[in-house]
Amino acid sequence: MRSITTIGVVVGLLALLLIGGCNYNNNFVRAEEDIKQKWSDVETQYQRRADLIGNLVKTVEGSANFERSTLESVVNARARATSINIDPSNITADQLAEFQAAQGQLSQGLGRLLANFEAYPELRSTQGFRDLMTQLEGTENRIATARRNFNEEVTKYNKKVRVFPGSLFASVFGFDTHAQFESDEGSDQAPEVNFDSLND
Question: Which of the four pLDDT bands, split at 50, 70 and 90, describes residue 187?
Fold first, then answer.
């Protein structure tokens, strides 16, 4: 009788462990899918910016004898930034750093491009150019929001993976923490680009 009770207790504990493990595994999978969705939002906003920059370059080329080296640096930085593809289920800190560096180079090139517009008042006064500036400004805000939302989702996931007993099940099922966006160096200081001055 005692052995039957012992077997029942062991079977009950194993069943609880199995149910708990399945529950944790499903929660990890859902959390990873949420990260993928947020990463998709990030990529969408960066792609929107790249498309707008492409339109901006075409507008500049068509409207003015603009400084060629500045345009070429923006076009090259845009090509580099859009060539980096990251699998959201395997994001590493190094991949995010490479992605951020490429996007940072594009931002710097765009900043130089915008700084040069002061010398072209006829270009700044065109409606198409002004519309692109407004859309770019809005896109920069969307990028910041998408990055913040991505980081929040990764934080939630990382907590699930690292806090006990989740950490135990995470190691059994092969789930590991994900990397987040880091602040860019000097990001505590506001950039010098002023869209308002371009619309005067």
Answer: low
